[in-house]
Structure formats: C-alpha cells, structure tokens
Specification:
alpha/beta, Rossmann fold, 2 domains, 12 helices, 14 strands, 41% helix, 18% strand, globular, Peripla_BP_I, signal, ABC transporter substrate-binding protein, amino-acid transport, BCAA_transport
C-alpha cells in the first residue's frame, strides 16, 4: 500500500490528540493587534461603578486573547478617563477614531456619555455596543446595540414589574414618595414610575428632584420622613442612594420599603442601611444565572480579580453582567460577520440572536432593542438576590419587608 506524506502527518496529529485527551490549544494571535477603544468614568461621581466596568473589560480581553484573539489578532483595549463628563467623552471618542485610529469602539458607562459616544460613532459609521443606556427612545443610530436589556419602553415595563412584585407583599404599599436625580436616564425612569404608580392607584405624598452631583441630602431626608410613605422610590445613580440613606439615619428614619434605580451595587450591600433595598437587575451571582458555564467561569474570574483590586463587593451583579454582555455581543458580531467591517458586524447583529450570560438577545426591535429582561432584586444578608419574577429568584428568596 502506498502511504502519502499527507496521510502520515494527519494520522500523527490525530494520534497525538488522542493520547493527550485534551482539546487543541487556540492558535496564537498573529499580525498587528486589534485595537478597541472606549472611555469610562474612572474619576468623578460615577467612578464607583465605572471601576467595575473597567475590571470586566480587562477580564474579557484576557479571556478572548487566550482563545486566540479575534480574527487571528491579539486584542488590545485602549480606555480613557472621561471623568464622568459627557462632553469630555465626546472629545475622547473623537480622538480614539481620528488620532488613535482604533479598529472598533466599545461604549462608555452611563447614559450621558453613551449618547455622546453614539454621536461620534454615527459621524464615522462605527458600530457602538454599549451596556448602560437608560433612554431607548434616544437611541436613533442604526449601528448602536444595547446590552442593557430593558426593552424599548422601560419607563412602563420596568415600573410595572416593580409594582407587580410589590403586590406580593403582606401589606402592599398604598402611598409613595418619589425623589430623584435629574441625571437624564434616572429622571426619565423616575417620571415613568411616577405615572405607573398613579395608574395603579398609589397616592403620591411627595415628589422631589435634585441636581446630579448633589451631596447634601439632609433636607430631602427630612421631607421624606415628614411625608411618611409606604414606599420611597429613589431615582439614584452611583453613591447618591447611600448618601440619602445616611441622611435618613441621622434623623432616625428608616423607610418601610425603598427602591433604587441604579445604585453602586457593592457600596449598597455593604451599607447596613442598605438592607432590604430594592433595585433592578439582569443577572446576579446565584442560580439559575450561574448554571450557564460561561457565566460561572466569569463569576470565578471576577471574584478573584475584584478581591485583588479591593473592590467593596466582589460579586458579579447587574453592572458587571451588562459590561460582560457588551463584550460578548461585540465578539459575536465580529465572528458572525467574519469581518471587522462595522456595517457587516451591525448587519449580523440585527439578523441574529446572540448568546450571552443574560440569555439570548435580539436587536430587531425599535431602536435595536429587544425584550425587557429586567428583574427585581433585594439586598438580603449583605448580598443582592433576585426575588422577581419567581422563576429567576435565588433559592428560597422572596420579598422581605420591615
């Protein structure tokens, strides 16, 4: 029998694989690095949360490079500090595209900065995947893709989910105080919650607003105490909720129920006054979410890195999960399109469901939004636990009231 050189090499390779019992190693990236650029609020009022997004991005880039990079190239992430300022974010994204000449973009943290980045992406026809944009109606650009799965109508759908859950309480709230930051997405969601509460028959006993960046919450706490509501809706972002709870504690007041829009997750769980705080989420570090092996691997990596970085909370929660999801979407778009061309990536994402640690996401709805996948969570025993819908609840977890 004639045995060709090709067959010998093929057989030898197969035998080596069988003997090792291990999967083949990813091919080492070659060529010029693939550069992905973004900004984050590494300083300023939003830094407490943005640091989580930075850690997640670093983890994902390391993971994807261990798998062989993207398009056979090592991935490098160029991240700049926008200082929690949307105007600065706009300038920095211009630099990333024109001066740094990055191959692709990744969105920043918080609605204002994302809207600024979206304008730059539109000007240069770049795909922009983003993770925390809170006003879907403003997402007019056809090559932007949200990882924050709150659907196209969150001011109604998210608010109704909250009030559906509250109806399961032993004594459902009848009165509500709404106090909110004027931060764009927070204000938008709070006004939506205000209207839904009225439609559901809750009596509004107080409505107050504050300017983003405010640090004096004493007068607001006093007004809430005087109103004595069954439920306090707190339209907060970052550490604002913690500061308001601290101000309430100083006047010996604890709200029976308090819901927070977008608190800094770690600081809220570590604050004793944050016990039983309610908020929204897409993912928390417990079953059924951690049944996904990719999610479980990410949770392990994040726990270790967050501990080493001395973050106040080492758990994977809504912010970390949204950030990881954004990177998954971008990678899926590149691989699905088999291209770094922004238009081809966008076309692929619009036509296909994408596997993420949240579940399968679609981008074929209004503003490229898909389904509202938001859940309601509560701080219980120093950790966030999903309590609604019940099929996503942590084992044994349900609404706790004072």
């Amino acid at each position: 029998m004639t045995i060709t050189r090709r067959r010998i090499l093929s057989a030898a390779g197969a035998a080596a694989g069988a003997l090792s019992g291990l999967p083949a190693l990813a091919q080492a990236p070659a060529g010029a690095p693939l550069r992905i650029g973004s900004t984050l609020a590494l300083t300023g009022p939003l830094s407490a949360t943005a640091l989580t997004h930075k850690l997640v991005g670093e983890i994902y880039v390391e993971q994807v490079n261990k798998r062989g990079g993207l398009m056979g190239r090592k991935v490098e992430w160029l991240v700049k500090d926008d200082q929690s300022k949307p105007d600065l974010a706009r300038t920095l994204y211009e630099q990333l595209v024109t001066s740094d000449k990055v191959d692709l973009l990744m969105g920043p943290y918080a609605t204002g900065a994302i809207l600024s980045a979206m304008g730059v992406a539109q000007r240069y026809n770049k795909v922009l995947v983003h993770h925390t944009f809170g006003i879907p109606s403003l997402a007019k650009y056809d090559m932007q893709f949200p990882a924050w799965s709150l659907g196209p109508d969150p001011q109604n759908t998210v608010s109704n989910s909250l009030f559906d859950m509250l109806q399961t309480a032993p004594k459902p709230p009848k009165t509500i105080a709404i106090v909110t930051s004027k931060f764009p997405s927070i204000h938008f969601m709070s006004l939506g919650g205000r209207e839904v509460a009225k439609k559901r028959g809750l009596q509004e006993v107080l409505f107050l607003e504050w300017d983003f960046g405010n640090r004096d919450f004493g007068p607001i706490a006093a007004r809430v105490k005087d109103a004595n509501p069954d439920l306090v809706w707190i339209g907060d972002i970052g550490l604002e909720g913690n500061m308001l709870l601290d101000a309430m504690k100083k006047i010996d007041y604890t709200p029976p129920l308090h819901f927070h829009m977008y608190p800094a997750p770690g600081p809220m769980t570590k604050n004793a006054d944050g016990d039983k705080a309610l908020s929204v989420t897409i993912f928390e570090e417990h079953p059924p979410f951690t049944s996904n092996p990719v999610a479980a691997e990410f949770v392990k990596a994040f726990n270790e890195r967050a501990k080493a970085a001395n973050l106040p909370d080492t758990s994977v929660e809504v912010q970390a999960a949204a950030s990881y999801t954004a990177w998954q979407i971008l990678e899926a778009g590149i691989k699905g399109a088999n291209s770094l061309d922004d238009r081809k990536i966008a076309d692929y994402l619009k036509k296909n469901r994408i596997d993420t640690i949240q579940g399968k996401l679609r981008f074929d709805g209004a503003g490229n939004y898909g389904d509202d996948l938001m859940k309601i969570k509560q701080v219980q025993g120093g950790t966030w636990k999903v309590i609604w819908p019940t099929q996503f609840a942590a084992p044994g977890a349900k609404l706790q009231t004072r």
